[in-house]
């Protein structure tokens, strides 16, 4: 009789199981992602939840109704979640250490508990006194907010089953463990099994849960990638923890649109919402400076005005330097190659530095024309009109292609006091141009550059 194996190999990306080590995972085709973990022994500690019916249901018999949502008391967070918290949803919040994940969730607990909701905050990293000290900085707490410092998932499951709160915070999922899994907390097996138990509790009892997840140096949640597939919503905190502003982004949301963002400012009392992100992004913009161009990006359904800065100077070495902050480095090289080929700018002799101010990371193609104009403006040392913004995608032939949702971008710019824009000619058709606003349509990079010469 064959002896049962005590260990198996698991893929950190997709959770694929194998009895032997493989260089490439057959499931997700990633290399060097297989790790050895003890085999999980199934026993009676698995959460058992009674189901009302096990019979399949015809599609036509299923009634569709709008999901009931609970407001978090923070408009920016509600926007990212799609309108609020859905009962029984499992949400994952990731971000760098010290960026404000625990602070944000504790503020949500404060807002909901004051409205009469029963909240359970479970911490595997901080003691109850540490949580109390952080809560005191946010002001007085009133309502039913229960705290628990525990990492044993069997104990946590029992407490949740007995208390049946409306919202549970798990801080963090990498510290949770099950006794019947012999691997260390944070391993592939522990994270996967812990998330599975919490998912059963959330769906079975209709309890909403926030899971805090640590991130790796690549910026993704540590542990198996299957963790992101199991949850309903994945939120990422972006920004420098040494800066005052934070950006919360939804990269997955089963109950709303993805790529929505919320902007927060870190203050002494916690995170404060930034109601007008466009004004914040343009705060401190230089007047009459070359290489500075304003553009408008779409984050989900929200238009966001940004400043793109470029600095072009002669290089002192044989190999010119290229640096980009907030956008794709390879995209910058591509656009500079277009300028050198189609316009004749000798950028191969220059160092180039491109920056999106405000700590934003944008890879939207509609920013191409603004980056090109910022580079040309810095190269010729000629400023672009301060009250105009520029949008458009640039092709390899130097043509300007159309963009999505130009009407929303123009309305946002008009609200912020801009008087005109340079955009693709194909995107002007059907636009409702506000009074006093000028739209200049261009078909090629040459047409756009002429606007600098005709100022």
From TrEMBL:
Q: Which CDD domains match?
A: RadA_SMS_N
Gene3D superfamilies referenced in this protein's UniProt entry, alphabetically: 3.30.230.10, P-loop containing nucleotide triphosphate hydrolases
Extract the coiled-coil ranges from the record. none
Query: Where does the chain bind ATP?
Result: 95-102
Q: Which GO terms describe its molecular function?
A: ATP binding; ATP-dependent DNA damage sensor activity; damaged DNA binding; hydrolase activity; zinc ion binding
**Superkingdom per UniProt:** Bacteria
Which PROSITE patterns did the record assign? RECA_2
The record's comment about this protein's domains reads: The middle region has homology to RecA with ATPase motifs including the RadA KNRFG motif, while the C-terminus is homologous to Lon protease.
| Record family assignment | Belongs to the RecA family. RadA subfamily.
What PANTHER family is this protein classified in?
DNA REPAIR PROTEIN RADA, DNA REPAIR PROTEIN RADA-LIKE PROTEIN
Function field: DNA-dependent ATPase involved in processing of recombination intermediates, plays a role in repairing DNA breaks. Stimulates the branch migration of RecA-mediated strand transfer reactions, allowing the 3' invading strand to extend heteroduplex DNA faster. Binds ssDNA in the presence of ADP but not other nucleotides, has ATPase activity that is stimulated by ssDNA and various branched DNA structures, but inhibited by SSB. Does not have RecA's homology-searching function. Plays a role in repairing double-strand DNA breaks, probably involving stabilizing or processing branched DNA or blocked replication forks.
Q: What is this protein called?
A: DNA repair protein RadA
Species assigned in the record: Candidatus Fimimorpha faecalis
> Gene encoding this polypeptide?
radA
